[in-house]
Specification:
Structural class: mainly alpha
CATH class: Mainly Alpha
Distance between the termini: 26 Å
Order of helices and strands: HHHHEE
Strand content: 5-15%
Largest sheet: 2 strands, antiparallel
Number of domains: 1
Number of helices: 4
CATH topology: Arc Repressor Mutant, subunit A
Shape: globular
Helix content: 40-55%
CATH architecture: Orthogonal Bundle
Length: 72
């Protein structure tokens, strides 16, 4: 079995995107709770990093709150 580097080295952003893909379209609060945070705003900085570094992997539905996020 051959393991690629991408499978070996997953960033926290990729782990968060995988969880979002698993739970489906969600709000920040739902996504944060699924990741184990007590606060509904636990992923705000991570979401901003995902938007900056890999915007093609995250779809944001609605411009205003409540925003819904979906992973590709």
């Amino acid at each position: 079995m051959k393991v690629t580097l991408q499978e070996m080295f997953r960033t926290y952003e990729q782990i968060c995107l995988d969880k979002l893909k698993e739970i489906g379209r969600s709000s920040v609060a739902e996504w944060s709770m699924a990741m184990g945070y007590n606060s509904s705003n636990g992923l705000i900085k991570v979401i901003k990093r995902i938007q900056k570094t890999m915007p093609e992997k995250l779809i944001i539905h609605y411009d205003k709150k409540p925003r819904r996020y979906e992973a590709l």
